[in-house]
Amino acid sequence: MLGHGGTRGAATGWRAYVALTKPRIIELLLVTTVPTMVLAAGRWPGWGLVAVTVAGGALAAGGANAINMVIDRDIDRLMVRTQHRPLVTGALDPARAMVFAVLLEVAAFAVLWLGANLLAALLALSATAFYVVVYSLWLKRTSRQNIVIGGAAGAVPALVGWAAVADGLAAAPWILFAVIFFWTPPHFWALAIRHADDYRAASVPMLPAVAPLQRTVRAMVAYTVVVVALTLWLPFVTTGLGWIYGATAVSFGAAFLIATASIARRPTPERAMSVFSFSITYVTALFAAVMVDVLVG
Q1: Residue 288's closest CA among 249, 238, 254?
Q2: Residue 262 belongs to a domain
Q3: Residue 162: CB partners within 8 Å, gap ≥ 6?
Q4: What global pTM score does this model have?
Q5: CATH code: domain of residue 69
Q6: Is 285 in contact with 35 (CB distance < 8 Å)?
Q7: Where in the sequence is the domain holding 50, given as residue range(s)?
């Protein structure tokens, strides 16, 4: 595909490299970054710093996702959901993908160090290292706790956003980190319920593929309770959050909890995907409320 030349071949090649970065996952990660920056600054932190932090975070996440695709190319061939990925279809070879990923990580570190500070750059690099080594190389194929522990990598952007502004950390970003950490299992397990057969075919011990549905749902509800509790704790450790955030945390938290528990009553793939979609809406609304409350409060 890359060797055909011409405009169409070039476009296909660029699309393959973009696909390596998993853009939709990057979007979700950055949803947590900018509101955390606003909370750290107590106002809009400036377009320049926001642009640098978002660019650096996107590069780091894209590089980590590309490395993950290189590692997972064998199991991606076995899963219907991932058989379109560029290393499976042959649009790219692993060596080029790995070079591309490393270049993204180097660029991310440089952008964050020069444009923000060293702490933000190191935190972004640590997220990549954790995602690649702890999750992709170790836990994903060996433990049903894979996404529980490995999900920590996806929570680091909240720390990066705060560090970019404050050049340090405090209680608030760690609570936001914990919110994403505990939100990740119910969010991802909802998707995994829909694709449980894929995970069994690839011998990946994702909880819905190796445990009864009711046990999975109980775990999802337990994690969701922790998430909601953490969101309600946040205003007590930081200033700038008022009724807008509080109303959003309570209403959307209750809706997320009810939706998660409803899978037990309606254990269908369609219901699981509905909960998966709502979990994205939930976290987006929550962090948007953080930003809005600070800016209009």
Answers
A1: 249
A2: yes
A3: 36, 37, 39, 40, 169, 170, 172, 173, 176
A4: 0.93
A5: 1.10.600
A6: no
A7: 12-296
At 28, the pLDDT band (50, 70, 90 cuts) reads: confident
Query: Where do the H-state alpha helices sit in the chain?
Result: 6-20, 23-41, 47-71, 73-76, 86-89, 94-115, 118-129, 140-142, 146-150, 152-166, 171-194, 196-201, 207-210, 213-233, 243-265, 269-296
Q: How many domains does the chain have?
A: 1
**pLDDT tens sequence across 87-130:** 999 999 999 999 999 999 999 999 999 999 999 999 999 999 99
For residue 277, with 0-12 CB atoms within 10 Å meaning exposed, 13-18 middle and 19 or more buried, which class applies? middle
Is 266 part of any domain? yes
Helix (H/G/I), strand (E/B), else coil: 195: coil
Beta-carbon contacts of residue 268 (< 8 Å; ≥ 6 apart): none
pLDDT in tens, 167-223: 999 999 999 999 999 999 999 999 999 999 999 999 999 999 999 999 999 999 999
Q: What distance lies between CA 72 and its chain's CA centroid?
A: 17
Residue 150 in any domain: the answer is yes
pLDDT tens per residue, range 39-71: 999 999 999 999 999 999 999 999 999 999 999
| Residue 126 maps to a domain | yes
pLDDT reading at 260 higher than 50: yes
Question: Which residue, chain included where needed, has tokens 């997972």?
Answer: 72
How many Cα neighbours within 13 Å face the side chain of 87?
Answer: 25
> 98: which 2 tokens?
């790995």
